[in-house]
Records
---
Amino acid sequence: MTRKTRVLAADAAGIAEAARLLAGGGLVAIPTETVYGLGCDATDAHAVASLYAAKGRPSFNPLIAHVPDVAAARGVGRLTPAAEALAAAFWPGPLTLVVPAIAEATSELARAGLASVAIRVPAHEVAQAVLRAAGRPIAAPSANRSGHVSPTSAAHVLADLDGRIDLILDAGPSAVGVESTILDCTGPSPVLLRPGGLAREAIEAVLGARLDSAAPPLAGTDDDDPAPLAPGMLASHYAPSVPVRLDAREVRPGEALLTFAGARPPGFGQAVAQRDLSPAGDLVEAAANLYAYLRLLDGAGARGIAVVPLPGHGLGEAIADRLRRAAAPR
Ligand code: TXA
Ligand code: MG
């Protein structure tokens, strides 16, 4: 199944073309504030099946339904009181809420047969315009081949999916740079399924309670695993092609180096290639640069990527999570 993949500027004409293609069951890469998503009509099982095929994603891995606002979200899932409070505080924004599904609102295939549905209201002008023009929930996983690093630019999407999707709307680099934080709101109190672009501390301030994390998956599992809780959490999901070595205190021969806050570990000058996630030590900037720098260092011809220790607070939790997966054995 090959398609002619076009790249259009995310202006009024581009957005109208995106909406037209989505209404016809097409596959359109859409910019959001976190990463680029690969969108399709979440109510159209045929479109969802072709999306899974284009990504090479196992079809039991459920997709996030994207909607323009909380009113539309209430048509897709039953928002619990905690979900309502979190939606009021953080939507639009980099937060995905898993709630009991309203069965007829999205195709069962998009939910991978689950009784729950993941919902997100993105804070991006273009994503908002596409969702309003589409007038239906849009299922959108990150716009990468399954198992690859998420795309934060139109060029990343094209590198992974050229010939497999219909359109890429180009709105420049993603501001946040890591995927949304996912909370399971189906139980008595919310549980963190995936750390992401919204920091735990902000969520805990609204809940007035500490947030529990779901048990991490086993290292070495892949997104071919059966029935994972949040398959995006699977250990080796975010994978460059060369090995990643975390908490590196020195650069070893042949390695590329990913640093933070101006760190210069021994061997710095010998690194095959080097990038600093944020010379100023800003974790928000570091998250925004993470995937682009991983891709760049992955393509530098090094035998591995050494990563210096990073702080764990704020967006550091999501960065550490993605780096752990990038480093997981596979
Ligand atoms: O920032 C984001 O969330 C991006 C942009 C495009 O919105 N999307 C994204 O989608 O990261 P994806 O498909 O790469 O990750 C969605 C995660 C998967 O790990 C999936 O397992 C989980 O959400 N998920 C979806 N529905 C779920 C459900 N009902 N219960 C638990 N986890 C669910
Ligand atoms: Mg993904």
Note: The first helix runs from residue 12 to 23.
---
Amino acid sequence: MEQISRALDTFQIEIPSWGFANTGTRFGKFQQAAAASTIEEKFADAAQVHALTGVTPTLALHVQWDLPQGVKDAGAIKALEAKYGIRAGSINPNLFQDQEYKFGSIANPDPAIRERATSHMIESAAIAAAVGSRDISLWIADGSNYPGTQSISRRIGWMEESLSALHAALVPGQRMLVEYKPFEPAFYHTDVADWGMALELARSAGPQARVLVDTGHHYQAQNIEQIVAWLLHLNALGGFHFNDRRFADDDLTLGSIDPYQLFRIFHEIHEQGAGGSADIAFMIDQSHNIKGKLEAMVQSVVTAQELYAKAALIDRPRLRELQDSSRTVEAEECFRDAFWQDVRPTLRDWRRTRGLPEDPLAALRESGYVERITAERRERNAKSISTYA
Ligand code: LRH
Ligand code: MN
Ligand code: MN
């Protein structure tokens, strides 16, 4: 109980504004009447998740989706923070949606487009500074679809220039997180395709840059926990975007396909004594297309806590002994023992002693919150769509 409590007391996880909005696949959206469409509704939904779980005090914002008027909105964000008791979390510039980004943003061969993309990142850093948010999360979606059509090597130099310019604009304490992804939207080459490229770009930008690991952004057989171990070792791990997948970047709720994967990641964090470190931003990055958005978010937060607690339970001194004497099966069983523990009763106790509902998902259903927002938002949402759940 004590071991689990200690781990859980330091565990917080950021939730994304876009997880409450209507999002879908490139083939379409299944609309939900309860979906949030204003920044205020996203803050309200985040506050509900925080009230139920107690561990989601910050909301990640995507500048173009949430803050179309840019830096002028800092006052409005502050007002929402005060009203809902939720702070703005990582600020995400949007470098992938504008028409001019067809051939890239900060790696575009056109210097004027690179310049505009860089200004947008700097403006995002200014928004973050104005609202007192530490991290700017950068997903550079640039790439190309056909061999020979873009200069992979010159684009490296352009990205370095642009990211250094952003770094120079950061205020002390701010961080820029470089997220990598090997595929989608580009299908031949992606400019920041893996952790090596992200790490080198972060290093060349400067000391306030780190790597962001999105669990959905890997090839199938890749050993994500090994990447995490290396980034921790190099003091280069800025944080995570958690989600699960079966095929590609599916954005399924974390732990839904392979909970052992996330357990193994958390193990590497505990192993290097980085559990509870504020320097590793735990964030959820999921778009819920089939599940109800509030339910999916609460379920994800609870699952993350369960897996974090399980990983904290590993008998590490014993495991080390077994590893050192290469007792393979015993070491594996020692590791798996923790994974198979049912931590849910302890989690219920932990919540009760903190005045939180023992079962946040059941409490969400009993609260009537989803029914209320469905009724409130149905009509307005109906104006922009023809059919929805
Ligand atoms: C890209 C990504 C990135 C974006 C988010 C909406 O796949 O993971 O983090 O900002 O999705
Ligand atoms: Mn992501
Ligand atoms: Mn993604």
Note: The chain is about 50% helix and 10% strand.
